[in-house]
Amino acid sequence: MRTLIAHIALGLAALGFAMTSSAQDAAASAASAAAPVVAAVVEAASAPVAAASAAVAEAAAAPAAAAPTPNKGDTAWMMVATLLVILMTVPGLALFYGGLVRSKNMLSVLMQVLVTFSMIVVLWAIYGYSLAFTENNAFIGGFDRLFLKGTWDNVAGTFANAATFSKGVVIPEIVFVAFQATFAGITCALIVGAFAERIKFSAVLLFTALWFTFSYLPIAHMVWFWMGPDAYTGADVVEAMNAKAGYIWQMGALDFAGGTVVHINAAVAGLVGAYMVGKRVGYGKEAMAPHSLTLTMVGASLLWVGWFGFNAGSALEANGFAALAFVNTFIATAAAVLTWSIGEALHKGKASMLGAASGAVAGLVAITPAAGNVGVGGALIIGALAGFAGLWGVSGLKRILKADDSLDVFGVHGVCGILGALLTGIFNSPNLGGPSAVADWTTVAMITPDAYTIAGQVWVQAKAVLITVVWSAVVSVIAFKLVDMTLGLRVTEEEEREGLDISSHGETAYGR
């Protein structure tokens, strides 16, 4: 544990010392580009004059290896996937959350989701993408892509490309930028459900900016940043390329679409917020039933549809892994709807529409880290378990925690995110129908069934979860405290009783 805390402390310190490595990259690129020419000249110098002339002529005449170019199908799919994730957030998440609060707070939740998402997209373009997805150290990226500079090459007159998971396959980097911006945006928007109906709008925005910078970006870098498959040109460079990747990626943790980066990260921040903002006035004494389950159902349905872009899009290509993630997202979600409904009927005597909608979200959350990492049978089991786990999270666990997590952000996203992350280590096994994981990016060879150890992979998954929980919790406590000291976190009791629609935004969702 002391080693883990030391690593986390080192990572947090690294945020203040992020240095760019663009000059080194440029020098390395120039040296790499010059290597064939230098080799030809050296060879020519050791040969007779005639042979030298022939060698130089042959080197000049030989066509340079063609750089990979994006496939239009992959590019089109990734743009569609990006649009689907936007649909998940606005209007999907906004309506799902909006229907769950009281009518006097409907617009305030819609506003928090919409404006938070929009602010993060802007911050992503300014510095977020650069800090998450450029080379620097194991905990945070550098500043090579500030304001997205370099995504268009003015000298070459072409767009820069981003790696996928296949050698020689790329997509335009600006498409990858947009896709990942939606992940950052929805992650921050998820948090607002934990302290809905009593927080200042300005406090939401300031906290989100701080948490995005010091929690989301480092976790995204640690989990997802690596040098790409084409960087692994031979066994002699493997160790060096691995050392440049994010800390959690180096550990070998599997997170296909954001179990740690998105759901656990956001859920912990939400739980901290629920404690630090405090309970709603009248919580536990007054009725606080959802005002429109119809809107919640509409929102849940949009989340399910949009989640196909979220999960299947994380393959970064229109290929078999995208199809696997697509089917797994479909099946796991359906299974979770059924098990939540069954569990609710057994526990309360009746299955509710709110429970079924919540079950869908639970299944979507749990399958996220596993989507392209497990077989269909594994997805079915993960979804089924998620329905029961989510139901326990919003009932039994919530009573234990004694937090007013208004819209059950931790109960669903935290519990099911952790469940999905751990089960990924089990059902990724080729012995259980999973696709296994890459053992060597030089040859793209997979871990064989006899070499795959479930216990070992689950332990790696558990460490990734623990790092995310501790990191997000520490950053969240500090960020909420800073906001409380500057702007204050809560509205007044009078404003809360009046409703945030009127007191914070001067309008109402419904005519009176």
TrEMBL record:
Domain Ammonium transporter AmtB-like: residue ranges? 76-510
The transmembrane residues are 76-97, 109-127, 174-196, 203-227, 247-277, 289-309, 321-342, 354-372, 378-397, 409-427, 458-480
Tell me the first and last residues of the signal peptide: 1-23
Cited Pfam families: Ammonium_transp (PF00909)
**Location of this chain's protein in the cell:** Cell membrane; Membrane
The protein's matches in InterPro entries, at most eight in alphabetical order, are given as: Ammonium/urea_transptr, Ammonium_transpt, Ammonium_transpt_CS, NH4_transpt_AmtB-like_dom
- Gene3D superfamilies membership: Ammonium transporter AmtB like domains
Task: Specify whether Transferase is a keyword of the entry.
Answer: no
* Membrane topology, from the record: Multi-pass membrane protein
Keywords attached to this Swiss-Prot or TrEMBL record, sorted alphabetically, are:
Ammonia transport, Membrane, Signal, Transmembrane, Transmembrane helix, Transport
Q: Which family does it belong to?
A: Belongs to the ammonia transporter channel (TC 1.A.11.2) family.
Instruction: Name it.
Output: Ammonium transporter
Q: Which organism is it from?
A: Ideonella paludis
Gene field: amt
